[in-house]
Design goal:
- The structure is a homotetramer of 335-residue chains.
- Chain A is an alpha/beta fold and 335 residues long.
- Chain A folds into 2 domains: 156 residues, 3-Layer(aba) Sandwich (Rossmann fold); 163 residues, Dihydrodipicolinate Reductase, domain 2.
- In chain A, 31% of the residues lie in helices and 22% in strands.
- The first copy, chain A, has 10 helices and 14 strands.
- In chain A, the strands form 2 sheets. A 7-stranded parallel beta sheet of chain A has the order 3-2-1-4-5-7-6, sandwiched between helices.
- The two termini of chain A are 21 Å apart.
- Chains A and D meet through strand 8, strand 10, strand 11, strand 13 and strand 14 of A and strand 8, strand 10, strand 11, strand 13 and strand 14 of D.
C-alpha cells in the first residue's frame, strides 16, 4: 500500500515534476495539498482522474494520511506552513531557499525579507545526499539544495578536498539555466518573445545561490565567482567551471579524483578525460553528469557539470531525500 | 528633410517594428509619442541616441512637427486618442481593431466592449492597399487590417471573384501564428515554458478576425470557418486554406488567377503550381507569399498564404498605407 | 525475472524511446541489437552501464534469450530482417511502414520501392489496439501504425461509425508534427537553422500515411484530404480535423460518441465539449487526447487530436502491442 | 549607379546575409557568383527577380562589372579562388579563416590542412576596422575577422592597453554562439532535434579562433582561455569574460576606458556600469555591445560582449571593410 505524500505548490514547475515522480514511485502516492497561493486550471478531461486532493493544512493532510510533505513553494510560504506540519508530526522536505542559509541575518541579506521561522534553522538539514546522507535519514525537516548549488557543489567539493585547485587563482562558475528555473509566474522577462532567440546574463556576481556554494564546496568567498545566464530552453542547468590545477596533472588525474569520490553514488556520472556532458544527457533524469578538460601546458582546467534543474535540482533530489527520511532505497522511483 | 511620424505604443512588438522601418525610411523619421499606457525600460547605453520623443498628445505632436501618427495600441487606446489627433490635423493609421468593423454593434459583439468613437466609422478606410489603394490616398484615418485577415483576404478574394471556389462546400482556414501576435503583455499562456515545445489552438471558430475576412473576401458567414493556432516562434503567420474547385482545373489554372490579379503588386508573390511558401520566405519582409496544390482527381485544393505578422500583418502594411496617404511611392522603405 | 526484448535501430529517435520504456517496464528488459545500419557514438561515461547488446541476427538474439523484437528501422531494413526473426521463433513488432499497406503494389505506389517480403502481408496484423486488440494477441508479426494515422483514426473512426459526419462535404485533416517524426538522419531541411522560427507544409495531399487512414477510419479516398506540416519542436503531433455534422447536434453530442467508444480505453482521453488538447497534454505519454468544438448554427465541427509521435505514435504503441502479444497487462510500463 | 559586388558562397548563411545587406546598400549591388561548391534550390516564385548572376570566375566577374568580391566560402575555396580574382584586378574580402593567421605553419596547426596560397599572407590585412582602419583603406585583400575573435578583441584589447587587467590571474572567455555559426552543411550535431532544448560545449581550450585573439588582444597564450558553446538559437554570439582588475577600481572606471577608446566608433556601444547586453540588443545589427560588472571587494570583473555572428561577426563587418576599401562612408548600408 502506498504512503501518501503531500505536495504543496503542485501547479508550479517543480511541483508538477514532484507529483509525476511520486505517481511512478513504488512506495509513495501524491496528495495535492491546495494552498491559496495556487493558481491555474486543470485540463478539461471528461473522465477526471489523478491524485487525491486536500487542503494545505496540517489537519487536512493528517486526515488524508499524509506522512510527509514536499513544499514546492516560495520561501515565504514555506516559512509560513512548515511549523504547522512539523507540529502535526508530518515531515517536511522544503524545496525553497527558506531554510538553506541557516541564519536569519544571512537570509535577510540574500533574500531581502525577514525570516519568520528562524527557530527551525537548528534542525533543518541541508539535503545534499551525496554529502549529508547520514544526517538526512533522521531529519524531520530537510532543506532541499538550490539548483545551481547542486551542480556546483558536486563538481567543486571533491577537487577542493583533494587539493587540486589553485585557490589563489580563484574558481569561476559560468552557469546557464533553462527558463523553468525562474518559476511559473508570468513576467515580461520570461515571456516567449523575450526569451526565444536570446541569451542573457542576470545576477552577475551576486546571485542568492552563492552562499550555498560557499557553505558546501569548501571555497571561501573571495575565491569564487558566479554568473547566472538564461538559455532559451525549458529545463536544464549547465555550469562551466574554470580553475587552475595546483600542480602538473592531467585531465585523467582529475577524473580519478571524481571517480574515487563518486564510485558508489547512483546519481553522479563521470565522463572520460577530455569529454563533457551536454544537457540532453541529463534531461528528465536525477543524474549530475561531470566531465573535465585540461590544458597540461598551462594547468588551466574546465569542468562541465550538468543537471536537470527540475529533477536533481529540485523535485528529484527532494524525493531522493524523502526516500532517505522514510527509510526506503535512495534510488526508489528515480532511475 | 525627413517628415516626422509619431508612433504611439512604441514599446509593443508592432510599435518597435514601426519605429525600425521609419528609421530606415527615405522620407520619414519616427517620433516616439509617450503614452501612460507604455511600460518598460530602455537599454542602458552610455551614449543615448535613437528617435526624438514627445508626449502622446495632439499639442506635443504638432510641436514636434508630426504630420501623421501610427497607433500601435490596444483598441481602447486608439478610440481614445484618435479624435484628438484628427482634430489637430494629424492623420492617423490605426493598427488596432478599433475602426475595422464599421459598426458599433459589430464591434461590441466581437470585442466585448463599447465603442467610444463610433462617429469615425464613416471616414475610416479599411487599408488593404491591394484592394483599397485609391480610397487610402485621400483618407485622414486608415484602419490597418488585422494580421490573420491580411493573409486570408489576399489569398481568398481573387478566387471568389474568379468563381473557382465551390462555395457550397465551404472554405476552411487553418491559421497558425507566432507569439508576437498576442502582444507584449506578460501572461502565463505566453510565457516561455508554456509555449516552447508546444502547439495549441485557440478561439476555434470564433476569432474576432473572422468578420474582417467576411467583409473583404467575398465569402458569406456560413461558407467560412477559421481556427487560430499558436506556433512556438516569435513572428510569422501561415494559413492553410482548403476548398473545392468549382470545375475541373489544375493548380496552374489557379496560379493563373493569382498572377492576373497580382502581377503589378509589389508585395504579393505567387509560387509555381505545386509549390508553397514557408515562414522563412516572408520573415522580416512586407511580402504576402501564396502557393497552391490541387488534387485534380477530386478537385480538392490547398492554398498556403504566409506573411510576417509584424510587417505585412501590422507595421509594414501601416507604413505602406502611410506612404499612400502622404503621397510617396507605396514601396518606400519597405523593400 | 525480466524477459529480454530486442531493439533494432536503437539509436534512432523511436528506438531510444523504446529502450527507455522497456528499461522502466516491470516485465521486460531491452537488449540492443546492433545492425550495420546503426550510426553514432555512446556517451563517454567512465562507468559504462545500460542494456545488454548483441548482433542484430536471429542467432545472436536467441542466444541473448530475446523473445520478441521491436524494429525501429526504415522499411527496407524491416523487410530484410523480419523473415529471419520469425523463422527463429522470435515475434516481431515493426515500427516502419513495411507491413502496413498489405499489398506489394500499394506499397510500391506510396513508398516508391519494391517490397521484398510480400508473403508476410497475410499474417501481419495492423496493430491499433483500440480496434484490433483481439487479433494482436495471437500475432507473430505486428505492423505498428504510423504516427499521423494513429491520431487521425482514433479521432475519425467513431464519428464515421456513428454516422455523424457529412461525408459528402469531406473531412480535412490539417496535421502538424515535431521534427523527430522525420527521423535521425541529418538533412538540410531538418537542420536547426532551417526549422527554428519557421513553419512549413510538406507532402500536401499525397503523404504516404493517407492510405492507412483510408484502411481504418471508414472514409473513402475522395472524402479525405490530408496535409502534413512541420512545427519547430522536438516531438508531438496535433491534428486539426474539419467536417460538417450530418444533422443538428451539439459538441456535447459528439463528445458523447467518443465517450461511448472509449470509456474503457486506458490511452484515449476525451475533453469536455468546447475544449481541446495542446501538445503539452500528451508529451512523453502514451495518450491520445481528443476534443471537439462545434458551431451549432452551421454544423461545422473542429476536432483536435494530439499524441506524442514517439510514444503513442511509435514506441509506446509498439510496447502496448508487445504487452498484448506477450500476454501482459496492456498498460504495463506505459502509465 | 550601383557598383557590382560579387558574392561567392551566396547560399551559405553569411552569404545570404551579405546579399541582403548589399541589396539595401546605397552604393553597391550584389552579383551572385555561382561556384561548384554551391548547393540548394531557389524559391519557386512565378515572377523571378533578385540579383544578377554570373559564374564564380574572374572573367565572368569582370564581364559583370564586378569591382570587388566577398568570399563567404570555406577556407579551401577562398585559397583557391583568391589569386585569380586579385590577378584580374578585383579586390577581395574573404570571410573564411584562410588569410587570418598569417603563416602557413600556424594555419596548418589550427586548420589541419595545407595552405595553398601562402604568398598572399604578406598583403592580407586583418580587417578589424576599429583597429586597422587605415591599413584597410589601401588593401587589395582583406581577411575578415572570425566571429568569436571580433567580440573578444573589441572587449579585451582596450583593457589590456590600459593596463587594467591582472594578466597573471588570466582572462577567461566563456563564449556562446547560435547555430548559424557552424554553417549551412547538414550534420547530425546541428540537426534540430539535437540542438533544441540542449546546450553544449565544444572545442574547449582549443578552438581555432584562439590565435586570432592572441594576435590582436594583446594577451599572451598562457593568459587566455576560451570555451565555445552552442545555444539553441539561430544567430548571435555572447561572450562572458572574466578577469581581475590590477588595482582598486569601479565598474565605472572600466566603462570609462571603453568610452575613451570607442567614443567615435559607430558600431561599438558601451553600457552604463553594472549593465550588460543580451543578444536581442544586437540581433540583425552590426553593433558590438559591451557592458561591465565589477565586485569592488574582490576586484573580480565580468565583461559581456555581444554581436550578431552573421553581421558584425561576418557579412556586416565584411561590408564595413568593403566600404573602406572602396572609399565610401564606413557605415553605408549598415545602420
Amino acid at each position: 500500500m502506498s504512503i501518501p505524500i503531500g505536495v504543496v505548490g503542485f501547479r508550479g514547475y517543480s511541483g508538477v515534476e514532484a507529483v509525476g515522480i511520486l505517481g511512478r514511485h513504488p512506495e509513495f502516492e501524491p496528495v495535492l495539498l491546495e494552498h491559496r497561493h495556487d493558481a491555474g486550471d486543470d485540463r478539461k478531461l471528461v473522465r477526471k482522474s489523478g491524485p487525491r486532493r486536500a487542503a494545505a493544512s496540517p489537519e487536512a493532510a493528517r486526515e488524508a494520511g499524509v506522512q510527509a510533505v514536499l513544499l514546492a513553494t516560495p520561501p515565504e510560504v514555506s516559512m509560513d506552513v512548515t511549523p504547522g506540519f512539523l507540529a502535526a508530526g508530518i515531515k517536511v522536505v522544503d524545496l525553497s531557499g527558506a531554510f538553506r542559509l541557516q541564519s536569519a541575518e544571512n537570509y535577510k541579506h540574500w533574500y531581502k525579507e525577514d525570516h519568520t521561522a528562524a527557530d527551525l534553522f537548528s534542525e533543518a538539514v541541508y539535503g545534499l545526499p551525496e554529502y549529508n546522507r547520514a544526517q538526512n535519514a533522521g531529519a524531520r525537516l530537510i532543506s532541499n539544495p538550490g539548483c545551481y548549488p547542486t551542480a556546483a557543489n558536486l563538481a567543486i567539493r571533491p577537487l577542493v578536498a583533494a587539493g587540486v585547485i589553485d585557490r589563489a587563482a580563484g574558481v569561476i562558475c559560468d552557469a546557464k539555466s533553462g527558463v523553468s528555473g525562474a518559476g511559473r509566474k508570468a513576467t515580461h522577462k520570461n515571456s516567449f518573445c523575450e526569451v526565444t532567440e536570446n541569451f542573457s546574463a542576470y545576477s552577475i556576481l551576486r546571485h542568492r545561490h552563492v552562499p550555498e556554494v560557499l557553505m558546501t564546496s569548501g571555497l571561501e568567498e573571495p575565491e569564487f565567482s558566479f554568473t547566472a545566464q538564461l538559455i532559451p530552453i525549458d529545463r536544464g542547468i549547465l555550469e562551466t567551471i574554470y580553475f587552475r590545477a595546483t600542480k602538473s596533472m592531467t585531465a585523467a588525474d582529475i577524473v580519478g579524483v571524481y571517480q574515487k569520490q563518486y564510485e558508489n553514488e547512483p546519481f553522479v556520472r563521470i565522463y572520460e578525460a577530455g569529454h563533457v556532458p551536454d544537457l540532453h544527457a541529463v534531461r528528465h533524469t536525477n543524474f549530475c553528469d561531470i566531465g573535465v578538460v585540461l590544458d597540461a601546458a598551462t594547468g588551466r582546467a574546465v569542468v562541465v557539470s550538468a543537471i536537470d534543474n527540475l529533477v536533481k535540482g529540485a523535485a528529484g533530489q527532494a524525493i531522493q531525500n524523502l526516500n532517505l527520511i522514510m527509510g526506503f532505497e535512495e534510488t526508489a522511483g528515480l532511475l
